[in-house]
Amino acid sequence: MLGRIFTVGGYTLLSRLTGFARDIMLAAILGAGPVADAFFVALRLPNHFRAIFAEGAFNAAFVPAYAHVHSQSEAQAKIFANRIFTLLFAAQVILLVVAWLFMPQVIAILAPGFSQDPERGQLAIDLTRITFPYLLLVTLVTLYGGMLNVMQRFASAAAAPIFLNLSMMVTLALAAFFPGAGYAAAWGVLIAGILEFFLLAGDAWRSGILPRFAPLKLDEDVRAFFRALGPATIGSMGTQIALFADTIIATFLPAGALSALYYADRLNQLPIGVIGIAMGTVLLPEMSRRLAAGDFEGAAVSQRKAFDFTLLLSVPFVAAFMAVPDAIMRAMFARGAFTKGDAAAAGATLAAYAIGLIPFVLIRSAVATFYARKDTATPVKAALTGVAVNVALKLALVGSLAQIGLALATAVGAWINLLLVIAFAVRAGYLALDRALLQSFAKFVVAGAILGAALWLTARFAPAILQVSAFRDELTLVLLVAAGIGTYTGSILVLFGRRWLLSLLR
User: Fold this and answer.
1) pLDDT digits (tens, 9 = 90+) for 345-400
2) Domain locations in the chain as residue ranges
3) I need a labelling partner for 420 at 20 to 30 A (CA). Which of 21, 464, 483, 495 fits?
């Protein structure tokens, strides 16, 4: 399992690194003004729907169902996949046509603050009409990726998001040939969807599992899939409602608030994608196969190792984002149209997001024990409770803390969600909160506190150490990384011991 995690995590890391290069170009070219706000609405809208109908609900319902059918009969699995593909394609085409025709009304609902700035609102409508077809393409990519993951083929699905970054970088570099930089970025999104589709479709075709259109028939397998999809959709929709609330509320804030949320979230998404999503992507089919074979102990051991490995890799990000967010933002984005003031606003937002980073990275592994048992309803209770707290806090905090309050509310909601999922799993007997697990968590807290203190001290004395004017922020980041690696490695070895680390890797 560890090898597959490194495969997914490695490609995801490459995707995040190219994503940072893309965001550096976006920051330098678009800055944090009205054009950037309009583009980020155009980017967020298809991504919200993708998270609801594709990567979120669909994967949770489809992967265990496909793994179960495939374990019984490859021929039946092909029929099942063909029927799901046909239904999915038809639903997405209808959604695309409706959204494209009624885009002004959609933007008026989801970005009402833009009504006070008609020029920014019209730009958001135009850009979203370009980006929205990406949803159809990436939904099919998710279907192909889920099938390939069950077949133990993880590389192409993990590598696909790299095309989004490369495509946008190329179109931004050629922005002079578009009506504006915002249009260049939007066309880059659509082109990326086409490239991702052909990558995954090609891999599925080579594997002999590429689905085709088939007559619709609601057999038992398809009905079971929809029974799981309903609660999963509600759960994913609840999470996206909270993100929609961010977009809606931020459009009423001064220009730049949406951009600060975007850049802070981009950094926050690095560990979530490289660690949390990669772990969950591998763990779900792993637990599904083990439970289908009756290996309940093996499934529990896999989940426990996933928890430990996730925390091991995530704690450094939490410490860094909370201790030195300004230094990170200045080094990453403060150039061109993106000022140091913009970096400070985004850094404060990042620190608020970081409070909820641990539940963000752990939640995919935590809910896997339910999804692998085809129970998509129980996690919904936790997700909706977390969303209710999240949205209530957004409304309470945005007045005094602006976009920082939105991020802080998201973090609190994430903790509510994770703690409830763990409580439900313990009550059902799927997870044991034994002494070893609690001690491990406490040691990670200590290691994170030591690392955070070391990073804060390093950042404070960096100007005295680095007697340079050029690239000071970038060199400070390099110094922080070096100090962090040494401090955290030493802390883990002292607190856990070399034997524990080797055992985890094995």
Assistant:
1) 999 999 999 999 999 999 888 988 888 887 878 888 898 899 899 999 999 999 88
2) 34-238
3) 495
